[in-house]
Amino acid sequence: QGMSPLGAGLAFAPMTAVVFAVNIIAGRHSSGRAARPLVLVGALGLAGGSVGLLSAGAHSSYLTLVVQLMAIGGGIGLIVPIITAALLGSVEPGRAGVAAGTLNSARQSGSVIGVAVCGSLAARGLVPGLHESLLLCTVVAVVVGALAWGLQPGE
Predict the structure, then answer these.
(1) Who contacts 108 (Cβ-Cβ below 8 Å, separation ≥6)?
(2) Longest alpha-carbon distance in the chain
(3) What dihedral angle (degrees, nearest 10) is formed by the CA atoms of 38, 137, 4, 1?
(4) Cβ contacts of residue 76 below 8 Å, gap of 6+?
(5) CA 37 to CA 131: how far, in whole Å?
(6) How high is the pLDDT of residue 56?
(7) What confidence score (pLDDT) does residue 82 get?
(8) Where are any strands of DSSP class E within the chain?
(9) Are 86 and 153 in contact (CB under 8 A)?
(10) Between the CA atoms of 11, 139, 121 and 60, what dihedral angle is there, to the nearest 10 degrees?
């Protein structure tokens, strides 16, 4: 759409802002009975935003794109602090550092693998590759939603 590199980067700022804001709010509700429904809502936001971007094209308006990106950001912002709290709450306090380090390593590894897979898909053809990447993100969101049923109240 003719954006400069800076403009393209700034176009993602609303998504980042939503991740930040929702992350803080979700952290306050990361334990207890609200955990499972919030992870499900987050998974729905992530899946819904990913599916919504499937219809985006070269001539889609920025507003169309940013709404979907904000849904994805909201989903991520809900899921991450709740899963982190569930993991850290499931270990003895003396092992919390090891659990946090393991979680961080797994998160970093998952990010690297995700970028590599989605980048490989996009390298085969930008639009079809991005669509395949969005479908993959949708599948991951559905799996996260299914795994949320394993969260026990109070975790």
Answers:
(1) none
(2) 54
(3) -110
(4) 19, 42, 46
(5) 28
(6) 86
(7) 87
(8) none
(9) no
(10) -40
- CA separation for the pair 141, 135 (Å, rounded): 10
Burial status of residue 69 (CB atoms within 10 A of its CB: 0-12, 13-18, 19 or more): buried
Q: Which residues of the chain have pLDDT under 50?
A: 155
Full-model pTM:
0.87
> Cβ distance 67 to 45 under 8 Å?
no
Q: Are 121 and 132 in contact (CB under 8 A)?
A: yes
Identify the pLDDT of residue 155.
46
Contact 134, 54 (CB under 8 A): yes
**What CA–CA distances, in Å, run from 11 to 5, 66, 113?**
10, 8, 24
Count of alpha carbons within 13 Å of 32, Cβ hemisphere only? Answer: 6
Q: What φ, ψ does residue 124 adopt, rounded to 5°?
A: -75, -20
Q: How do residues 50-92 score in pLDDT, each as one tens digit?
A: 999 998 877 889 999 999 999 999 999 999 998 888 888 889 9
CB 75 within 8 Å of CB 49: yes
